[in-house]
Amino acid sequence: MPEPQAASFSSQRWYWAAPYAAVVLFAVAMLSLVWLLQQRELELERDALARDMQWAEQTMRRQMLGTEEFLGQLARDLSSEMLDHDGFQLRANQHIANHPELANIVWVGSDGIVRWSAPFDTTDRLPGEASSSEQAGMLERVRASLRVEYGAAHRSPRGGAVLEVYVPVVRSGAFRGAIVGVYSIERMARYLVPAWFADKYRLALHDAEGELLAAGTLLPALDERLSFDLALDPPGNGLSVRATAFRSGSGVPRLLPAVLILGLSVLVLWSLWTLRSHVQRRVQVEKERDRLFNLSLDMLCVVGLDGRFCRCNPAFARILGHDPEALPGRSLIDFVHADDVGATLEQLRRLADGEPVKFENRCRCADDSYKWLVWSINPVPEERLVYAVAHDITGRKATEEALRAESAFRKAMEDSVVTGLRAIDLNGRIIYANSAFCRMIGFDEDELIGIGPPFPYWPEESRAVCERNLGLTLSGQAPAAGFEMRIRRKNGERFDARFYLSPLIDSSARQTGWMASITDITEPKRVRAALEAAHERFEAVLDGLDAAVFVADARTDEILFANRAFKRIHGFDAVGRTVNGVAVPQPERGDYRVDPRSLGTSELPRELFDGELQHPLSGRWYHVREQATRWVDGRLVRMGIATDITDRKQTAEVARQQEDRLQRTARLITMGEMASTLAHELNQPLAAIANYCAGCVTRMQGGAWRPEDVLAAMQKASFQAERAGKIIRRVREFVKKSEPRRSAVRLAEVLDDALGFAEIDARRVGIHIVADVEPGLPDVFADRIMIEQVLLNLIRNGLDAMADALPERRVLVLRMRSFGPDAVEVAVIDRGHGISEEGRRRLFTPFYTTKTEGMGMGLNICRSIVEFHDGRLLVDANPEGGTIFTFTLPTETASERTARSA
Question: Whole-number mean pLDDT of the chain?
Answer without folding.
Answer: 79
